[in-house]
Structure formats: structure tokens, C-alpha cells
Amino acid sequence: MDDKTHAPNPDNFRWDNDGTADVLPGTATRPTAGEPLASVIDRAISRRALLKGSAVAGATLVIAPSALLAPSPAVAAPRHRDPGSRLTFETVPPGNEPDIVVPPGYSVDILLRWGDPLTPAAPEFDVDQQSPAAQAQQFGFNADLVLWYPLPRLVARSVGIRGRLGAIANRSLGLLYPRLATQTSRHALVVVNHEYTSGVDMFPGYDSAAPTAEQVRIEIEAHGFSIVELRLGDDGRWRFERGSPFNRRSTGSTPIEIAGPLRGHALMRTSADPDGVEVLGSLNNCAGGKTPWGTILTCEENFDQYFANFAAVTGASRAVSERIPAPDGASERRWEDVVERFDLAKEPNEYNRFGYVVEVDPYDPGTPAKKRTALGRFKHEGAAARIARDGRVAIYSGDDARFEYVYKFVSAGTYDRFDRAANLDLLDRGTLYVARFDVGDVAGDDMGDGVWLELSPDNPVLADWTLEEILLDTRGAADRVGATPMDRPEDVEVSPQTGKVYIALTNNSRRTEPDEANPRIANEHGHIIELVEDDPADLTFRWNILVKCGDPTVAEHDTRFGDIPDPVAAGISPIADPDNLVHDDDGNLWIATDGQYFSGSVGFGQNDGIFAVPVEGTDRGRLRQFLSGVPGGEVCGPEFSGDNKTFFCAIQHPNDGEAFAKLWPTDETRVSKPSLIAVRRNDGRKIGR
Predict the structure, then answer these.
(1) Is 650 exposed, middle or buried (0-12, 13-18, 19+ CB in 10 A)?
(2) DSSP sequence for 618-664
(3) Kind plus residue range of the DSSP H or E element containing 610
(4) Which one, of 358, 175, 183, lies nearest residue 254 by Cα?
(5) Which helix (H) or strand (E) holds 612?
(6) How far is the CA of 42 from the CAs of 35, 563, 622, in angstroms?
(7) Would you put residue 142 in left (φ > 0), alpha (ψ -120 to 50) or beta?
(8) CB burial class (10 A; 0-12, 13-18, 19+) of residue 332?
(9) Residues 239/231, Cβ–Cβ less than 8 Å
(10) Residue 413 class from Cβ within 10 Å (0-12 exposed, 13-18 middle, 19+ buried)?
């Protein structure tokens, strides 16, 4: 999601940032100043010492899939080499080339494009002959999150025979998944979110002021997510299996169960669903994550844009959405003119049914997706899972808007690797928390302590709230308890080696007062925070700023890159607007950006990309660019295959606003298409070497 400073194109419905939520100022004010190099070096040494001291605690939090076989804490195995030594690829320079650029020795394969048929019965794509029925069977628009899952033969046979996952296969999968998720698999399931649509880049002659009913319904079907099977060939390339029984779409009109504490609640009931138990579709699915039992967590982010006439909403339904309002009048998409449920003057409670984490079982086509309301309602960007010492599961998530918050949910029940079926509803009961980032022993050193504040009626500050009110108005509850407003918290990921939590804070050009965790006024380029807990069920943590993004050659950018005292001499790449994160199996952090071209008051003028940075060892902070995207396109959904020999990501809105005038992929002849790509080394070795 991006925060651009150029004049908006009225026909280009990017909806990438939230202009209605920037109402909370920063907290403690602290002036910043430049430092001499010697001071920086001294501080880097002290920071490294502190972080190494806390690494013992962090090492008890290993949550690599293989470690999930034992929910009790495991100590990371001794390392015989620096994890950053894996990153020997040749740095990709910043640029605005018309096609993807990767280091020498690597190749890019385009696996799926917008409109590709996903089943044998699905029609071939024709940009001039689109229909809602066709789009519901084709790869959706604006690919975002990408998740890779191994496909065991037993599971494939079970679904191939029954059309759904059998009990024996399900139990076996619970035992096999943690191990297989880190190994080579010749068959895999890949999940891809379809965040939003842009009519001007989908339909020739599109009129944003008066979209046709057919166009609106096509756009609804182009949302949601796709689940597809890929097969790894002997040549090291992944290929889409069109005949797989696992292939399916979930769109903006697919029935999804409402689960957790809000199921059946009065504010979840509509005329079409008087029981409040089923909603049509998930919208604005951005990032997400995986559970230890192998299900998908896909997040609804900027859902407010699809609804109209919030001014007509009154009473309790209005009260729970004052902090996350829809447009008071007509929406810019005008879906309400075609589908009544998007008109809040007619269906005021429909709005309350969006803004959740949706759990989906990729291995079972017969099981419906479920909105996990216990995780709260806000603009979820990510959902990273960890297992506590006592077996409970924690889910970390950011709320992607300026001055919003970082959350953690801790389940009431415990993970059971011997009973996968019992885990499937584990996220319906638990406690939601929000983070407060505090100053540490020394102000101004970009590190400190923090507290997880409970969001429940058991917190005396919220004693006059019901749990349901808290889950519907999660932002309001977080305001009340005193959480720290952050600079657009987007993806959150957990290191498979240390259990440390990494938070991408994309930017916040509206910040006028810095605080310890958001130290830059008008934070144009964003930063990444590293959070350390002794156990994911703990209510305290330590934190530090790993990366303060910008161009290291520009002093005014006030950059920081881990423990690197001289980023220019170290060959650090310029980077802005960190969005999505993933770790390789050595624990190095890989970053996808969104909005680099227009980042800041002047702009970087470079395509978005993928960057890799060691977070441990002597090269901690040595960030370098691995991939450069395409003009106008966001690079998102970074993901590795289990053996780390393939790197997946999505190219979203290539040639944004100009999709019919400029073409990508370069072999297209009519329109640019958002796509899923795979990057591989030509020699078949792990990515990064």
C-alpha cells in the first residue's frame, strides 16, 4: 500500500492509503540531531552487544515449521557460518526499466496472469468479452500476498477421490506439514490475494463516473484470492496445473462464515443474513500469513472504500465505526448503485462484517473460509504466527494507516500437532492486545521497552465496554488504553531462526511530533522495527529500529541500517516504503517495497523492488537490492519455496493507470496484467547465493 505525493488520477482507484484515520498525534516529543561518525560507531557497538545479549531469549522462540513439531521452546542450533554470508548475489541497481531486473545467474518465470483460467471449464480471457461468471473462474486482479504450501501425496489422493480432505489425511497432514514446509516438494499449493481492482486498467473505455453494472460485478469477482496447484519440473521451473482439484477462487461474492465472538451478534445481522452467520466475500485482501497447522490467514485491509452513505448510519452501528468510517456519501467505485448491500443507508450492518482476518484451509476445497472476529476489526495488513511455551498461539498484525497500531492475539487453547482438526477453530477464543512502545534506558537511541495492553473488559480501562464492542471498534479500544500510534504498520513477520518479530512501518508524511519508536518528523521513507519477547505469551517486550529507510548518500534522510557504521562504503542500496516481509531459512529478512518512485517530497524515481538484509551476524543491516520491478507496479507477497530454491512474489498494478498504453508482461498485446512470478537460480541452488 502506498502513500504517493503526486496529483491523483481520478480514474485510478489505487486506494492505497487511509486519509480518514490520521487523527491521532504522536506521543512523546524528542528532538533529533545529526551525530558524528565516531558516535554512530560507538552506538552501533553498544547496540550489537545489547542485541546479542537478548539473543539467548530470542533463541528460545524458534518457530520454523520444523520447530512447530514441539510447542515447547527450542534453542537454535549453533551456527557454523554467518547467516548473511548466504547473500552473495550481485546488487541490482535502482532504476525504472520496463521489465523485471534480477542479478546475473537468475531467471524470472511468469506463472499466472490476471484472467488466466484456473480450471478446465473456465473460459480463456478476452479483455473485450469479460463477464462476472468468467472472472469468478479466472486468476483475479492485482495480486498481492503469496503463500507456498507443500502438497503431500496422501492429501492429493484424498482430495482427488473425495473432493475434500478426509479425516485420516487431515490427521496425517497435521504431523507432516511442519517438516514438509521446509523441504523440497514437487507439488505445491500457492495462495495469491487479489487486493483491489482499478477499472481504468481493466476495461477499455472505462468511465469512472458511471461504471456499468456488468463492470461492477466483474470487479467484485476479481477480488478475494486464488488457490492453485503448481508442479516443479526437472528443469527447476514451476508450472501451473490447470486440472488440479485444489484450484479455486474465492471472490467478493463467495459465502464466508462469520466465526468467533461476533458470530450471530446483532450488529452482524442484515436483511440477507438475519442470523449474522455468513457474509458474501472478503474484500481488499492484502497481506496475511500461515498458521502452524497449515492454513491461510488472509487479511482484509482498506475495506471502507467499497461502501457508501455512512452519514445515514446511526446508533450502535455508527458508533463502532466512527474510527474507521466509510465515505459519508457516494463511494468513488459506485458499487452501491448496483449492489444494495454496499449502500449503508439500506444495509447499515453490512459494513460491520468486513475488516477481519480470514482463515482458509488450502488443503480442503470442501471447507468454507471463516472470518476470525476474535482477532479484531481494523485494516489488517499481516498475520504472523508463533507458538508459546505453553502451546498457545500468538498472531501479530498491523493496522495499515497513519497513526494506527500493532496488535497481538493470544489463543485461549493450545496447538496440537496430533489433532489438526482441533486446531482449525483455535483462533476463535483468546485475548487481543495492542502495543505501547516505551523509551528504554537512554532516550534517542532508537531502542526501548514495550508493553502489550489487554483489549478486553478485564482491563479496568475498558470495564464499561463489552467484548463485542471491543472487537467491532478495535481502534477505539486501542485509543482508550493508550497504545502507541505508529507510522503505518504494514506487514509483520517472525524470524524462523530467532523468533524475533519484524514490523514494516511504510511511511507517515503527516507526523509532526516524533516519538521513540517513530523518530522522524514527516517520515517519508519508513522504517523497520525489531521486537524481542522472551515468550510470545508475555506482556512485555524489547524493541529497536533495525532500518531507517532512505538513500544513505543523502544526509537529510537520517538513515540507519542495523550496525553498519558507513552505509555508503558498505554498498547499501537506497530503499523507501517497506511493505511486505519474509525470512529465508537462514533468517535473513527480505523486504518488498510499495511506492518508491514517488517516495518523499521529491521522489526516488526508481521502481519498487525486493531487498535482502541480514539481521544477525557481522553484516547485520547490510541491505542490498535483489530485484527491481516494473514502472507503476508494486512488488508484493515475497515468499520462498520450502527448500528456498525459488523466490515467489507478485507484481501488482503494472503500468498503473496506463495499462492499455504500456504493456507488461512484455509479450502482452492488449493490456498490462498483474501477475505471479517465480525467481530461480540458473544453477538450482538456494536463492541469495
Answers:
(1) buried
(2) TTTT--EEEEE--TT-EEEEEEE-TTSSEEEEEEESTTTT-TTTS-S
(3) strand 609-613
(4) 358
(5) strand 609-613
(6) 11, 10, 18
(7) left
(8) middle
(9) yes
(10) middle
Residue closest to 325 by CA, chosen among 308, 340, 341: 308
283 residue type, one letter: L
* Average pLDDT, 10 consecutive residues per value, the chain (689 residues): 35 33 30 32 40 37 30 40 89 96 98 98 98 98 98 97 95 96 96 98 96 98 98 97 98 98 98 98 98 98 98 98 98 98 98 98 97 98 97 98 98 97 97 97 92 98 98 98 98 97 97 96 96 98 98 93 96 97 97 91 86 97 98 97 98 98 97 98 96
Task: Give ∠ CA 603-609-611 in degrees, rounded to 5.
Answer: 110
Please tell me the total number of residues recorded for the chain in this structure.
689
Q: What is the DSSP annotation of 360-402?
A: E-TT-TTS--EEEGGG-SS-B---EEEE-TTSEEEEEEEB-SE
Output the CA torsion sign for 554, 556, 559, 564. Answer: positive
Cβ 118 vs Cβ 226: under 8 Å: yes
Beta bridge partners of 345: none
CA 364 distance to own-chain centroid: 23
- pLDDT for the residue 192: 98
- Asked if residue 379 lies in contact with residue 303, where contact means CB atoms within 8 angstroms, the answer is yes
Task: Say how far apart CA 649 and CA 675 lie, in whole Å.
Answer: 9
Distance of CA 24 to the CA centre of its chain: 23
Are the beta carbons of 358 and 300 closer than 8 angstroms?
yes
In the numeric block, the cell 515447547 is attached to 72
CB atoms within 10 A of CB 682: 10
Cα–Cα distance list, 472 to 38, 276, 531, 568, 652 (Å):
50, 14, 27, 47, 30
| Distance from C-alpha of 208 to C-alpha of 12, rounded to nearest angstrom | 8
Strand-pair category, 392-398 with 384-387? antiparallel
User: Using alpha carbons only, how large is the chain's radius of gyration in Å?
Assistant: 23
Cell output for 572? 547499501
Q: Which of 671, 679, 579 is nearest to 113 (CA)?
A: 671
Q: Which of 478, 431, 485, 491 is nearest to 458 (CA)?
A: 431
- Give the CA distances from residue 617 to residues 283, 600, 611, in Å, rounded to whole numbers and listed in that order: 41, 31, 18
User: Measured at the alpha carbon of residue 163, what is the angle toward residues 161 and 164, in degrees to the nearest 5?
Assistant: 110
Say which residues have a Cβ less than 8 Å from residue 639's Cβ, sequence separation at least 6. 146, 147, 148, 582, 647, 648, 649
Q: Which cell numbers hold the place of 355?
A: 475488516
Grid coordinates representing 106 are: 537468475
How would you classify the pairing of strands 224-232 and 238-240? antiparallel
How wide is the angle at C-alpha 24 spanned by C-alphas 18 and 26, nearest 5°?
115
To 10 degrees, what angle do helices 167-180 and 153-162 make?
150
pTM of the model: 0.90
Judging by beta carbons within 10 Å of its beta carbon (0-12, 13-18, 19+), is residue 271 exposed, middle or buried?
A: exposed
Give the residue from 304, 285, 380, 292 showing the smallest Cα distance to 637. Answer: 285
User: 531 by DSSP, 3-state: which?
Assistant: strand
